[in-house]
């Protein structure tokens, strides 16, 4: 486990689940010019449906990013989640409209943190944070995993209900089978003990 210090950020532990996210981020850290570099303190962020979440990135070395072109992009669709340029928030994907905020208080320190409010299951996936200014271009990636406990509970109850119904139907079929078998045996037994006809008179 390692930790990376951001620009005036506390230490964040990198919960690397696999080697792939690390390799992707390491590759992106080398993109751009030698004068501009991007760091993602946490490659993997988790949240629950309905919560607010902050995706963090910062410039290294720390520098004022207030006049930079900053884009947070959803990797899956290549759509703009948030676009900031020269102090103005520009157009973004309809799915994120009104749900994102670039935390401007940290821009002067090189922090490009993005807050997403009321996250949805569809928000899960990789996001790239890209910045461009007169010194060059840099990019880093963050993976967001959104879980839905209610959906998981519904799935578990659905599976349990299906099992119960299967058991009940199987039990009913078995009981009907036993009943019919017993009825058939009773008829056979009754027929085997029928009284003999009376003898004929001479």
TrEMBL record:
Transmembrane segments: 157-179
GO molecular function: signaling receptor binding
GO biological process: regulation of cytokine production; regulation of leukocyte cell-cell adhesion; regulation of T cell activation; T cell receptor signaling pathway
Keyword tags: Disulfide bond, Glycoprotein, Immunoglobulin domain, Membrane, Signal, Transmembrane, Transmembrane helix
Entry keyword Protein transport: no
GO CC terms of this entry: external side of plasma membrane
PANTHER family named in the record: BG-LIKE ANTIGEN 1-RELATED (PTHR24100:SF149), BUTYROPHILIN (PTHR24100)
Name recorded for this polypeptide: Ig-like domain-containing protein
Native source organism of the sequence: Phasianus colchicus (Common pheasant)
Lineage: Eukaryota, Metazoa, Chordata, Craniata, Vertebrata
């Amino acid at each position: 486990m390692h930790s990376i210090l951001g620009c005036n950020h506390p230490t964040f532990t990198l919960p690397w689940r696999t080697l792939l996210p690390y390799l992707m981020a390491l590759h992106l850290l080398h993109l751009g010019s030698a004068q501009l570099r991007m760091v993602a303190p946490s490659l993997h962020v988790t949240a629950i449906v309905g919560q607010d979440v902050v995706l963090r990135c910062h410039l290294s070395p720390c520098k004022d990013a207030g006049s930079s072109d900053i884009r947070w992009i959803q990797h899956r669709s290549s759509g703009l989640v948030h676009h900031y340029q020269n102090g103005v928030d520009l157009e973004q994907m309809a799915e994120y409209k009104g749900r994102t905020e670039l935390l401007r208080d940290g821009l002067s320190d090189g922090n490009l943190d993005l807050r997403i409010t009321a996250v949805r299951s569809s928000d899960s996936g990789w996001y790239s944070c890209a910045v461009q200014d007169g010194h060059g271009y840099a990019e880093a990636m963050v993976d967001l995993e959104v879980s839905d406990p209610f959906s998981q509970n519904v799935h578990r109850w659905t599976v349990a209900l299906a099992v119960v119904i299967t058991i009940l139907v199987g039990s009913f079929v078995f009981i009907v089978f036993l009943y019919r078998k017993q009825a058939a045996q009773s008829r056979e037994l009754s027929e085997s003990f029928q009284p003999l006809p009376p003898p004929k008179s001479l």
